[in-house]
């Protein structure tokens, strides 16, 4: 237990040093077991935490130590652990994020690295000083390990406090880049010319059962008739085998990418160079484009076997591939 308390104190100092929260704002927690969590106390400064500022509470919010007053966000933290697989929660109030999202409802990232880590960050409106409308935030966290609370702050979850902290820090740095870019631009950027290659491909009609052979056949058809994918695949010399696996049933498909398209596919992992596996909820969100597949791997919602640096070379054609997936809608 002391090790977990020390971890909370360490991350609190990092948050303070990186200006992610000031004064007595922000709160941290760690899952202890299915019944209890460790959480910071109300009115504590994350940059000056002591062991007595951290205490164990039950999932109903009651502290195990008499007299300890947990963070006012205690019920949000316990709700996260009751509904999600998270082991750590970071809630901070970053200056640039709060300022940026006070006037924006979304952010487009200007570096590939940031998009790989964060994906599409959900923004959930808040109307109270503490998170009282909890379930919309929980729902958003199912598809992204980091969520912006408009007019409030940022929450991030992870397997460790390190993971959650790095997400919050990465988002704050990305917002700083967006603000600096706006200062340089000063004027609205001219609208990009329309491109027929970016048009969405119409679905054949109806929906498909997740990971059914019919869905996969439709995906292959869409990819092989898409001129934009072919061009991007040839430009980046896309030659590989990629397998996808549904955890619950172990249903697997391996796609052989060659010659600007999908040459063939099999219903087993086989000799795939890359294997991506995950639960049905995450795959369904990906096929609906509610979850970025690259970010899903960096946030550990999906598991990737293979060289991430190598698959990143083909980020552009695979991103087009994922766009096409939405045209084979799942039920």
From TrEMBL:
Instruction: Tell me which Gene Ontology terms the entry assigns under biological process.
Output: pentose catabolic process
Cellular component annotations (GO), alphabetically ordered:
cytosol
Which GO MF terms are attached to this record? aldehyde-lyase activity; metal ion binding
For the keyword Phosphoprotein, the answer is no
Q: Name one Pfam family in it.
A: Aldolase_II
This protein's source sits in the domain of life called Bacteria
Q: What is this protein called?
A: Class II aldolase/adducin N-terminal domain-containing protein
Q: Which Gene3D superfamilies match?
A: Class II aldolase/adducin N-terminal domain, SCP2 sterol-binding domain
Q: Where is the Class II aldolase/adducin N-terminal domain?
A: 6-179
Keywords for the protein's UniProt record, in alphabetical order: Lyase, Metal-binding
State whether keyword Lyase applies.
yes
């Amino acid at each position: 237990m002391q090790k977990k308390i020390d971890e909370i104190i360490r991350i609190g100092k990092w948050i303070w040093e990186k200006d992610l929260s000031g004064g007595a704002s922000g709160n941290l927690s760690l899952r202890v077991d299915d019944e209890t969590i460790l959480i910071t106390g109300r009115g504590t400064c994350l940059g000056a935490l002591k062991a007595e500022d951290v205490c164990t509470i039950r999932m109903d919010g009651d502290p195990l130590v008499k007299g300890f007053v947990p963070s006012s966000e205690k019920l949000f933290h316990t709700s996260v652990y009751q509904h999600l697989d998270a082991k750590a929660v970071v809630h901070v109030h970053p200056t640039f994020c709060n300022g940026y999202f006070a006037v924006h409802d979304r952010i487009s990232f200007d570096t590939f690295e940031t998009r790989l880590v964060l994906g599409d960050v959900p923004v959930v409106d808040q109307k109270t000083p503490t998170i009282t409308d909890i379930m919309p935030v929980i729902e958003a966290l199912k598809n992204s390990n980091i969520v912006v609370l408009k007019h409030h702050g940022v929450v991030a979850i992870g397997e460790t406090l390190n993971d959650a902290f790095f997400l919050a820090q990465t988002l704050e740095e990305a917002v700083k880049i967006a603000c600096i870019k706006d200062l340089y631009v000063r004027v609205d950027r001219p609208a990009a010319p329309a491109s027929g290659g970016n048009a969405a491909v119409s679905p054949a009609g109806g929906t498909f059962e997740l990971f059914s052979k019919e869905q996969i056949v439709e995906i292959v058809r869409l990819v092989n008739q898409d001129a934009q994918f072919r061009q991007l695949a040839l430009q980046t010399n896309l030659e590989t085998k990629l397998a996808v696996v549904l955890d619950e049933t172990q249903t697997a498909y391996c796609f052989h990418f060659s010659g600007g398209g999908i040459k063939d596919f099999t219903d087993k992992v086989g000799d795939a160079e890359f294997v991506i596996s995950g639960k049905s909820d995450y795959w369904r969100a990906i096929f609906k484009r509610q979850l970025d597949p690259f970010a899903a791997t960096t946030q550990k919602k999906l598991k990737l076997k293979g060289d991430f640096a190598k698959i990143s070379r083909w980020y552009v054609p695979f991103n087009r591939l994922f766009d096409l997936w939405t045209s084979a809608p799942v039920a």
